[in-house]
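Exercise 7b. Backbone tokens:
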């Protein structure tokens, strides 16, 4: 979250926002849960960690206590709300890693679709880099785009294509020949 030298330090805490309806139809209660992710400027983190105490029943030090220290130092705290619980889920094995990767790929696919790219099946599309898009582009199933790729206008990419570090001009149909 560093935006420059004159940047005023912000702590970003990834939060999962849970909504619960109250009995009154016009009011809702929101709960914030600290998932443990924080972005903190190093010098502030060092100072706050060195001043942590263990005055609790378990005699333990809690890193989350630095939030109170930031508030006391009048540092702006900016929570980051997770769109999905998978964004803050731990990854401890290959199955969980694959689940997180698939979620990330679906998010990217939907962003492209909102920008006008036609994807035949967003669940069978992988973007592993940067994609610059023109207008009226269509991408079929099982397409992998890697590195820096630029699509002109009216580009069609057929099924099962792998495209890496490529510029595709306007009005091109790109497909796999078997």
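Sequence design result:
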């Amino acid at each position: 979250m560093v935006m420059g030298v004159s940047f005023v330090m912000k702590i970003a805490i990834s939060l999962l926002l849970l909504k619960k309806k109250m009995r009154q139809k016009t009011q809702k209660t929101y709960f914030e849960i600290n998932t443990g992710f924080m972005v903190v400027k190093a010098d502030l983190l060092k100072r706050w960690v060195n001043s942590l105490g263990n005055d609790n029943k378990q005699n333990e030090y809690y890193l989350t206590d630095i939030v109170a220290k930031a508030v006391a130092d009048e540092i702006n705290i900016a929570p980051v709300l997770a769109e999905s619980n998978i964004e803050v889920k731990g990854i401890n094995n290959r199955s969980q890693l694959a689940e997180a990767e698939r979620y990330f790929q679906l998010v990217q696919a939907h962003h492209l679709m909102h920008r006008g790219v036609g994807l035949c099946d967003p669940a069978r599309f992988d973007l592993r880099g940067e994609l610059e898009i023109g207008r009226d582009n269509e991408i079929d199933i099982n397409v992998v785009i890697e590195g820096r790729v630029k699509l002109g206008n009216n580009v069609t990419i057929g099924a099962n294509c792998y495209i890496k570090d490529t510029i595709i001009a306007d009005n091109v149909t790109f497909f796999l020949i078997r």
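Instructor comment: The two ends are 47 Å apart (CA to CA). Residues 1-25 have pLDDT under 50 and may be disordered.
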